[in-house]
Every structure is written in structure tokens, then in C-alpha cells.
Specification:
The protein is mainly α. It has 15 helices and no strands.
């Protein structure tokens, strides 16, 4: 497609979006190709290795402030939900569905995603894990509200996103808290003095792990749900009200989806996506410099902007390669997965250990040692992911696509 070519019809499937979705789902299903675990093994023998430290940083969640590629997985989920909504409900509208019917579908989808997240998160646990921090549950909590903003103007979208982020910032900064004592830590909420000194030094008390507004709300909310034991804290510092600022991430995705549906040329869309990406990253860094740290685990407003910037760059880069330059053949392995994201996500959540064990049963216990013990996690993750990919390929060939 040439740079001055008008965009395809609004109803056309956006191949770059399916490619982006496939990239994220392959990353998840292949467990990051086991690179974080392999990096840990190599760092035991080579603690000063810059290469393996960089690999570990990109394929493991950072402990608190900052982020790498692995921290962009969930924002990409949320962002792509928004982009997809720009297309899916226009199609439903063209089919003659009323606003009420579409809103009902959005509510049903939100509930279904929330409960699917709870179901998958409860895998291998003694009882239902009523946790609302899972990515699917977070999407489900925000999805009906996102629909209420669908079809509005870009100005309304921008005002709503600003209100969500500023409201989140105000909630955290106005909440009465002393934060974590850096000298003593707060072990009762899973924060040791050593961890606090390393990760919370220079971070405002409002944004401390398990000592903030979101944690206080979860102490009330999650203990209203049926639980075997009382909720005390989340080990990773994640919290339910993350869905509020992450709704802004979905809304930014919706805005990008509307841009891609517009009558602008593909070249103009590409430039705007790249510009938006750079602006988001810079805005997030500026807000961090002003005292709101970039923390994915509590979805700080600066993180919402910073991560959305990277999502725009990822989508923009793929849009430039696939839809603008027309380089599409290489995307097929990702499309197979991207068009069945729910299926491969569920397989990844439920079947990874069983699949790995089954492969060893039939192909030998030393299967994953073929590249040495240190690289065994990478081999295992790759072989297991390939099993899921071939299942998706089988479904793709038979036009079986799971939808919610």
C-alpha cells in the first residue's frame, strides 16, 4: 500500500492489530520463551553479565518503579481492547443492532471476562480465588464504561481520560498514609526493610507498595467476597482499582482505533501513531519527575501515559510495516494466534505444566536439557508454546475462533 493511499473500509479487518495481538499472545503462551528463568540461571554463574541482566529486565516484571517489555503485556491487552472496540461496534451498528442491544452485549462481555479471569486465576488453588487483579477481570470491570464512551468525539475522549488519570492521582495523593517505614519495612504487608530501601527510596509515601489508597480499598472490598482466609495483602502489590486508570489506557486505544478507522491516509495515520507514542512516553516521564512514579503494579497515572506511548509505537510500527508498506507474509505465525487470543490465553493459563510433563513423558526426561541445564527453561517454554501454537493453527485452518 503506498503512503498516499486512502485507508481501507472501516469494516475491513486491521491486520496490524491482529499481528500486535498475536505478538503479545505468543509472548504470554511461550512464557516469554523462558528467557527470564534462563537469565536467572546464567546470572548465578555470571553475575556481572550485562547481556543477561538486560534479558532479565525485559522478560520479568520490575519490582516497582520502571518497566520493560514484560510489563507492557497487560497494557497492550487493555490498549488493544480499545482499538478493537472502534471496529466491532461499528460493525454491529451496521448490522442494525440498537444501542441498547450493544450496551447489553458490552455488559455481558464485561461480566464474562471478569469471571473468566477469576476462573483461570483459581487454577490449582483449593477454592475459588476471588481476586480482581487478573488482566481479564480488569478488562471486564472497565469494558461497559468504555462502551459508554464509544461513539463520542475525540474531545470527550480526551477529557474523560484526563479525568480518570487526574482523579486517580488525587485519590492516591489525598489518601492519609505514612507509607512504608524504609528503615524497618512493614513485614505484615509483605514489605521487608531491604526491599523497601532498594525500591521505595525517593518514592512518595502515596505510592508505596501495600500502603496506599488501593491497598486500603482492597482490604475492605476483597474481604466482602467469599474467601477461605481473610485478605491481608497482595504479594505483588497489585490492586483492584487499577481498572480505573487502566480504563484510560483502553480509552487511548479506542481513540487510536477511531484514528485508524478515519478517512486519513495510511501515511498520516502512521505519523500520528508514532507522534502519539513519543508524546505518551515523554508525558509519563515528566509526570514521574513531578512526583508520580511510573509503577505498573498500581497503574499510576504516569504509567498509564508511559505504557500507552509504547503501545502506540508498537501498533504504529506494525501498522507501518503491515498496512502501509504491505509486508504481510511474515505475520502469519502471529495471525494464527492473534485471531484466537482467548483460546491460547486459556491454554497458557491452564495447561503449561501438564503439557511440559506430557512432552517429557513421550520424548524423554532430558528433552529440555538439549541446550544445557541453564537454558532448560527456554527450551521448555518454547516447546510448550509450540504445542499451543499448533492447536491454534488447527483451529485457524478449520475457521474455529473463540469469541466472547
Amino acid at each position: 500500500m503506498k503512503p498516499d493511499t486512502p485507508s481501507p473500509a472501516a469494516s475491513a479487518r486491521l491486520q496490524s492489530l491482529d499481528t500486535y495481538r498475536g505478538l503479545i499472545m505468543v509472548s504470554l503462551a511461550f512464557n516469554g520463551f523462558g528467557l527470564a528463568a534462563a537469565a536467572r540461571n546464567h546470572l548465578k554463574a555470571e553475575p556481572d553479565s550485562g547481556f543477561w541482566r538486560a534479558i532479565y529486565h525485559q522478560f520479568e516484571h520490575v519490582d516497582w518503579v520502571g518497566g520493560g517489555y514484560w510489563d507492557l503485556i497487560q497494557p497492550s491487552f487493555m490498549f488493544m481492547v480499545g482499538v478493537s472496540m472502534a471496529y466491532s461496534y461499528v460493525r454491529r451498528q451496521a448490522e442494525g443492532q440498537s444501542w441498547g442491544r450493544m450496551f447489553g452485549h458490552a455488559c455481558w462481555r464485561g461480566v464474562a471476562l471478569a469471571f473468566l479471569g477469576i476462573f483461570l486465576n483459581s487454577n490449582s488453588r483449593p477454592s475459588t480465588e476471588w481476586s480482581l487483579m487478573n488482566v481479564l477481570t480488569q478488562i471486564g470491570l472497565g469494558y461497559p464504561f468504555l462502551f459508554l464512551l464509544w461513539g463520542r468525539s475525540a474531545r470527550v475522549h480526551a477529557i474523560a481520560a484526563a479525568a480518570l488519570l487526574l482523579g486517580t492521582w488525587l485519590l492516591y495523593t489525598a489518601w492519609p498514609t505514612r507509607g512504608i517505614d524504609l528503615a524497618q519495612g512493614t513485614p505484615q504487608v509483605g514489605v521487608t526493610a531491604t526491599w523497601a530501601k532498594e525500591h521505595l527510596t525517593g518514592v512518595g509515601a502515596a505510592w508505596h507498595k501495600n500502603a496506599n489508597a488501593g491497598h486500603a480499598i482492597d482490604l475492605w472490598l476483597l474481604n466482602l467476597l467469599p474467601r477461605r482466609e481473610a485478605f491481608v495483602f497482595n504479594g505483588g502489590g497489585y490492586q483492584t482499582i487499577n481498572f480505573i486508570p487502566s480504563l484510560a489506557t483502553m480509552l487511548f486505544g479506542l481513540m487510536c482505533g477511531e484514528l485508524l478507522r478515519s478517512s486519513r491516509t495510511t501515511a498520516a495515520k502512521f505519523r500520528l501513531l508514532i507522534a502519539a507514542g513519543a508524546a505518551g512516553i515523554v508525558a509519563g516521564l515528566i509526570w514521574q519527575a513531578l512526583g508520580c512514579p511510573i509503577v505498573k503494579r498500581i497503574w499510576t497515572p504516569s504509567w498509564a501515559l508511559y505504557s500507552t506511548g509504547w503501545c502506540c509505537l508498537l501498533l504504529g510500527g506494525l501498522y507501518g510495516l503491515v498496512d502501509l508498506a504491505g509486508w504481510r507474509r511474515w505475520t502469519f505465525p502471529l495471525l494464527v494466534v492473534g485471531m484466537n487470543s482467548i483460546a491460547i490465553y486459556a491454554m497458557g493459563m491452564l495447561l503449561k505444566p501438564w503439557t511440559a510433563k506430557t512432552l517429557q513423558t513421550h520424548l524423554g526426561n532430558d528433552l529440555f536439557q538439549i541446550l544445557g541445564a541453564a537454558n532448560a527453561p527456554a527450551v521448555q517454554a518454547t516447546f510448550t508454546g509450540l504445542v499451543f501454537w499448533f492447536i491454534c493453527f488447527w483451529m485457524y485452518r478449520r475457521k474455529i475462533f473463540l469469541r466472547i
